[in-house]
Amino acid sequence: MRIRRSSKDDINKLVDLWYEVSLEAHNFVDKKYWKSAKADMKEKYIPNSETYVIENNNELSGFISMLDNYLAAIFVDARFQSRGFGKELLNHVKKDRDYIELKVFKKNIRAYNFYSKNGFEIKEELVDKKLKEEEYLMIWKK
């Protein structure tokens, strides 16, 4: 496993990984929503965030994107989930921060459990305005 800062050459792989994992993890959201967000991920969100990728045998296996202290995205290829890749990415960004915030859909129980196991606590319950889905605002503090 190796973590490195993402490069422009990674963008298509990152967007594809984000899309595939989003469909799986958020099966309660209409697929059209994720498809319509692909361009924004490629042109706005990923390029404007601090993004790190994790590789396994030189294969991009996951990534994490931060906007200051906000965890905007963490996605691990389905083949590498539950093998410590997400935890490694999380620990990589934790070491340079005193706190991290994120939002997670209430229905995404697997992600919620992952964040809880990694020291995040619910700060507030919210509703996503676009999708009308309940979500948690979670926070981790050093």
TrEMBL record:
Keywords: Acyltransferase, Transferase. Residues 1-142 form the N-acetyltransferase domain. GO terms for molecular function: acyltransferase activity, transferring groups other than amino-acyl groups. Pfam families: Acetyltransf_1. PANTHER family: PEPTIDYL-LYSINE N-ACETYLTRANSFERASE YJAB. This is Putative acetyltransferase. It comes from Halanaerobium saccharolyticum.
